[in-house]
Amino acid sequence: MMADRRDFYEVLGVGRDADQDEIQRAYRKLVRKYHPDVNKDPGAENAFKEISEAYSVLSDPEMRRRYDAFGHDFRQVPPDVDPEQYARARSRARSGAGARGGGGQWRTSDGFGTGAGDIDLEDLLGGMFDSRGRRSWGPVQGADQEAELTLPVEDAYRGGRRTITLGGGRRLDVTIPPGVTDGQRIRLAGQGGQGSQGAQPGDLYLVVRIAEHPRYRVEGRDLHTYLPLAPWEAALGATVAIDTPGGEAKLKVPPGTSTGRRLRLRGRGMPNPRGKPGDLFAEVRIVVPPKLTEEERRLFEQLAATSRFDPRRGT
Fold first, then answer.
1. Which CATH number is correct for 145-210, 2.60.260.20, 1.20.1080.10, 3.60.21.10, 2.170.270.10?
2. Long-range contacts, 27-34 (Cβ 8 Å, 24+)
3. What is the SS3 assignment for 169?
4. For the structural domain made of 217-306, what CATH number should be given?
5. pLDDT tens digits, 235-259
6. What is the number of H-type helices and E-type strands within the chain?
7. Whole-angstrom Cα distance, residue 5 to residue 228?
């Protein structure tokens, strides 16, 4: 007899009332511990698969609802079976009444029965239980799985083909759409867990994580960066070149710009194949020469002697 599978909530170490944020935090913590790329323990790969299956179910509200109602049998129970009636029928089967009821009927979610008379529990649930109420597994579709895909900003911006390596050395070619955002899921159909007895495999979902970048900070589709300016560029205004993940762009700096001012380049953030692209925001930082030439010093001294500007006034 097959041993009972671990409860998905137990696998992730969360309570049955856990919200989605708590489930996600628990999943990420376990993935960092058991991912086969970082944990070479022989049991790590199986633990990782179990964790991925549990998360794929509990992170989907509809799948979680059915799991809460029917446990690990939720994929095989027909959608119109009432959870309470299911529990009573299973209890009767296990208590020795057998898989056939005596004049009972199944109640669907709309309140109507499926017909009076003896009900064959085995037929209704696809042979899930034998006559003694024990679980008898038939073909089961493979579980959906999830893995994280970390991308630098430039790769997320451009998209393209990429080869990834999963646990056990498994390699997959992935097409990354341009402008993917942090947390976006890329579906690889049929690349999840294997089904049993010829059933279809599940899907693999790659959750995109944008890596920290020395120049850019990503917020949704908007990009944030710093724009160094010389004092005269900030005071007089200028048109300067600025690097973006899509290449160099020109940015107009208004006269009288101070440190901390944010200048926007519309549409130069992360692209959006289905809508409006993000913007790029450049925060000004005024930078002075680290070492002045004699002429620069003379001009600065002349400016200091003639200007009445007091940067501390009103602060």
1. 2.60.260.20
2. 27/51, 27/54, 27/55, 27/59, 27/146, 28/148, 31/148
3. helix
4. 2.60.260.20
5. 999 999 999 999 999 999 999 999 9
6. 9, 11
7. 58
